[in-house]
Amino acid sequence: MTNQEPKKLSESELCPPDLLPEQERAYERDVERLLLARHDEFVQVTCPACGSRSANAEFTKYGLNFMRCVNCRTIYVSPRPSETVLADYYQNAESYQFWAAEIFPASESARREKLHIPWYDRIREYCATHGVNTGTLVEIGAGFGTFCSVAQDTGDFKRIIAVEPTPGLARHCRERGLEVYEKRFEDIDGTSLQADVVVSFEVIEHLFSPRDFILTIRQILKPGGLLVLSCPNGEGFDIATLGPASLAVDAEHINLFNPKSLALLLEASGYKMLEASTPGRLDAEFVRDAAQKHLIDISQTPFLQRVLIDDWEHLGWPFQMFLAENGLSSHMWLAAQKYDSS
C-alpha cells in the first residue's frame, strides 16, 4: 500500500523497562489464579483456522499444550480455557489494570506516533482504493483508545465506536469522548450495529473461537465493508527461532495463525482478501535479547551471530526490514472486504 519507510521501533518504547517487572509479576499471578486454577474447565478444540482434527504437539508453556495443525500449520492451544473462563480473566486480570494505569499512559506518545497514526493512514488508503465508505468505524479491543482517538481527530468518519470489555480500559476510552461498548464483542447484538470498517489489533489470538468472531464481524459489516486484523504470525522469525521462549507465546495467545491460515479462515467466512503482510519491527530485537540473556545460543550460527550481536548497529534494522518485506516477521496484518451480496 504505502511506500513510506517504517519508523524504527524498540520494545522499550512500548513498555518502559522500569514498569516491565511489575507487569510480569501481575501477569504470572493472573495466569495462575484465573486460568490454570480452572484447568478442569478447559475444552478440547480442533484447528481454529481450518477445523482439522489432525495436529502434532509443538511445545508446552505455562502447562498449556500448543499444537500445530498438520493441514494449515496454525499453532493453537488445546485443551484451552473455556469462553466463560476467558471472559472472567479479561474482566478481572490485575495485569490489564496495570497496563491501563501505568504502561499505556507512559507509552502513549510512541504508540500514537509509531503505531496508530501509520495504521490509520493505511486504513484510510484502503478505503480510498477499494471504495469503502467512511460512515462508521468500529474498533474491537480498543484498549487505551489511542487508535480511535487518532481516527476521531481526523474527522474522516461520521461515527467511531470503541468496543472494550476491560473496565479500566473502557473508562479511559470514555474519558477521550469516545462512544464505548463495554462488553465482549461476542455479546453485542449484530443486528443493532452496522459498520463500514471494523478493525481489531492483537485480539483474535486471545479468542476461544476465532471463527465465530469473524462471522459475527461479518454480520455487522455492510456489503463491501472493510475488515483489518493484526496478530502474531506463528511462522515468523521470532516464534520460529525461540519457540516457547518467544514473548508472543504466552497463556493468552491461544491462536497463533500464519498469513495463509488466517486468510483461509477469512475466505471461508465470506471475505475477499486484499492484503496479507508481516510489517513487524521487533523480531530481530527479541531474538537478540534472548541470545544476550543466554536463552538461546547463536554462537555456532555465524550469520545470526554477526547480524544480531557483532554488527547489530549496522545490520539489525536492515535484517528486520528483510523479515517484514518477505512475510517472515512474527507480527502480521490482514485486510479483507466483505463480499457484496446485494
- What is the H-and-E element order? HHEEEHHEHEHEEHEHEHEHHHE
SS strand fraction: 15-25%
| Number of spatially distinct domains | 1
CATH architecture: 3-Layer(aba) Sandwich
Write the CATH fold name. Rossmann fold
Helix content: 40-55%
Report the radius of gyration as a whole number of Å.
19 Å
Q: What's the arrangement of strands in the largest beta sheet?
A: 6-5-4-7-8-11-10
Q: How can the largest sheet be summarized?
A: 7 strands, mixed
CATH class: Alpha Beta
Low-confidence stretches: none
CATH homologous superfamily label: Vaccinia Virus protein VP39
- The best one-word shape is globular
What distance separates the N and C termini? 28 Å
Query: Number of DSSP strands?
Result: 11
The SS-based structural class is: alpha/beta
Number of helices in the DSSP assignment? 12
Q: Quick check: average pLDDT?
A: 94
What labels describe this entry?
342 residues; alpha/beta; Rossmann fold; 12 helices
Give an overview of the whole structure.
Helices cover 42% and strands 19% of the residues. By secondary structure, it is of the alpha/beta class. The protein has a single domain, classed as Rossmann fold. The strands form two sheets. The chain has a seven-stranded mixed β-sheet with strand order 6-5-4-7-8-11-10, with helices on both faces. A four-stranded antiparallel β-sheet has the order 1-2-3-9, with no helix packed on it. Helix 6 (167-175) links the parallel strand 5 (159-163) and strand 6. Helix 2 crosses helix 4 (94-130). The mean pLDDT is 94.
